[in-house]
Amino acid sequence: MAENQGEVKLLGVRGSPFVCRVVIALKLKGIEYEFIEENLGNKSDLLLKYNPIHKKVPVLVHNEKPVSESLIIVEYIEEAFKGNPILPTEPYQRALARFWSKFIDDKVFAAVRKAVFTLDEVEREKGVEESLEALQFLENELKSKFFGGDEIGFLDIAATIIAYWVPIFQEVTGLQIFTSDKFPKLYNWSQELINHPIIKESLPPREPLLAFFKGRIEALSASK
Amino acid sequence: MAENQGEVKLLGVRGSPFVCRVVIALKLKGIEYEFIEENLGNKSDLLLKYNPIHKKVPVLVHNEKPVSESLIIVEYIEEAFKGNPILPTEPYQRALARFWSKFIDDKVFAAVRKAVFTLDEVEREKGVEESLEALQFLENELKSKFFGGDEIGFLDIAATIIAYWVPIFQEVTGLQIFTSDKFPKLYNWSQELINHPIIKESLPPREPLLAFFKGRIEALSASK
Questions:
Q1: Domains in chain A, please, with CATH?
Q2: Measured distance CA(B23)–CA(B37) in Å, rounded
Q3: Is B222 on the interface with A (CB under 8 A)?
Q4: Could you tell me the CA-to-CA distances from B81 to B20, B26, B67 in Å, in that order?
Q5: Residue range B171-219, pLDDT digits in tens
Q6: Taking Cα atoms as reference points, which of A159, A157, A154 lies closest to residue A185?
Q7: Model pLDDT for residues A174-192, shown as the tens digit of each residue
Q8: Are the Cβ atoms of B99 and A62 closer than 8 angstroms?
């Protein structure tokens, strides 16, 4: 345990890519924490107390003080706990890491969501197209082993959703969005990332995730 | 001019609350900059070069290196230029400032937009309700003269849209969302803010803004 780290709790669900970002950041910093599994179908009083605004996970509670929004939590972890820096030190590089992480949430995730969780053919086609366009920007941006350079950084953490969740979405739907021939650099990066020891132990197991998303997609069809 | 500040350009449009955030941050830091007025109906090659991803303003260009997304630019300005800190130093207070600023963009702005720029009665009613709910969270959060304490900080800069633009939207539409009786603390804050000398000289003139938004609302009705 890091010295004087205080009491750290993480309210989350194991399968969430946003919760996973926080798990990775905590593990990179060597912080011990208690994971409190939430049931989003029946939200706990603890969740409603600590995140009354959005009522969403992840919520990090450090010495009784709650922080929510995954990227804001990762920056908090960076600033509250010393050692193993997650963000670069140079202001321009920091701005780029934040910019691309926001791009992943606003553009990549929104597009992939549209492609995967819709029954409308036209909408899905649009989602696929927007996903390809967004991933191309990231492919062009990748200039080293990781986005953070030789080590995993803020943008790699934000982008774990692309490396691990998008292939699962593809397997469930049969869509071909993120493939090694379309995005060779990004694909290599994704393999490096998910095989990195810290990431490996942070990712939720694949099989239950596959089953979960199969269920979601089937429920979508059933409610058509 | 701050010493060694380098060459600073801001691509923007005068009436934008997002561009205004950057203007305020630059003025608070005492940075000299060249303002390059964009025509969003006919985007310049400069804008397409410096923000090929979103093709939006504001873009800050510091020594030829572009940064976009208003809140990311404000953090960049904070980190690239010393003196007159915009963010608190304590990690938890920094996380809160970031959280509420994101809340303004994701919730307040989205709700106000829905209330103002729609002709659908049900949608507008929902927008008004969501705006009131979101502003109530901010009213509860305000515990000092400014969100930043005695001085203007990150969240005050993010929230300028509420202090200055929302009243203009109200005047144009006749909607009553942000009023002194509904949100007394927030209203007092807004008066302190818009009368602060740095903010005052950063805000675009009111009359052209009123005319602009009247035009937008009328165009909306005409296209019904």
A1: 8-80 (3.40.30.10), 91-222 (1.20.1050.10)
A2: 13
A3: no
A4: 18, 9, 14
A5: 999 999 999 999 999 999 999 999 999 999 999 999 999 999 999 988 8
A6: A159
A7: 999 999 999 999 999 999 9
A8: no
